[in-house]
Amino acid sequence: MELSRxxxxxxxxxxxxxxxxxxxxxxxxxxxxxxxxxxxxxxYSFGRQFLGLDKCNACxxxxxxxxxxxxxxxxxxxxxxxxxxxxxxxxxxxxxxxCDSESWRPVVLSRLVSPHLHELADKNICMSAxxxxxxxxxxxxxxxxxxxxxxxxxxxxxxMVQALASPMLRCPSQRLLDRIVHRYFxxxxxxxVQMKHFTTKDKLRLLYTMAxxxxxxxxxxxxxxxxxxxxxxxGSCGRxxxxxxxxxxxxxxxxxxAQRADAAYQLLHITQSxxxxxxxxxxxxxxxxxxxxxxxxxGRVFIADASTIGIIDLQEGFHSEENPQANHSDVFSCLSGSxxxxxxxxxxxxxxxxxxxCRHILPKLLSSADLQSAGLPRTVMMEMSVCADRSQSDQxxxxxxxxxxxxxxxxxxxxxxxxxxxxxxxxxxxx
Length: 431
Fold this sequence. Notes:
The protein is α+β, with helices and mostly antiparallel strands.
């Protein structure tokens, strides 16, 4: 039948039908050949063992597990041809994090300790209960006298954390322990200094984290959003914790002097702010290395590894044992990989952080030749030596750090590349 003899409506439908046939025959192969038009496939299949969920509640927590399973946390090789999970033998990984599936931010995914130390600690837990091969890690820890004390208390008391290896628990005050509970992110109803709303599993997770690695707790207690020099904590899943990423400080070693001077100035300022702050908590370094610090895109320096930060309460003082000779060690005391007891709080000098900084980190950023080429007097470099000298008095070390910081301030660059202080520095006489 000729097309002209059809009714107008049917003729239109006939033309439309012919167009559909033509489109299906010629265009669909092109669409199918375009990978971007194909539905995305799952790149990773997270397992309980990889995340450490099979060992919960001897773990950090589960606050960010949904992000893993929804693929809103991705490893650095997400888009590569390597579609398997990264090696489970690594302690930390670089990754990306999103809240809206469009903008991605760098993050660090890290275990509390290395997989080898985790395995060794788990074996020691079983051996402490007389089990040679394997056991229920959680059941053994729940049965310990220390944890039984935790289950009966609604307050976290200094006696409940004695002999734990975390540096921040070296000399705990009640105010410090209250802040740990108050800021503990892994419970559903955060915000109280009492543990009435903690389930038994919540208490075990908090105790286990304290015993193994204090990093997630420090980031929660002193968040960067309140001006502290720590990176943002995103949460945890099993034995993996996630916080904001940063670049290594050592990448500045080959940078222009102005950038290195700016980083050195920030390090001195950070060290000072940790010792003197409105909360009257003295945060100090027990060790110092370049890996402790990281730098972000706008030039700001942060403390990336807070696992060796000690804390002294300047307001309440610190808890002293009634019987210093008493042995409070138990299976929790060695979970971090070391059973060594730290020296008493009285041995911590007020200038300890500056001494470690000037001895181990600042010389890698600045040399005497750098400072001389910048027109600074030789006495400035001498002040760095004084700052690093433990035989000097605390006041002399503080004075040396202050002189060094004032000298470095004049070398700091003022450009829009340093977004953390631009345009303020452009209109200030201090820069």
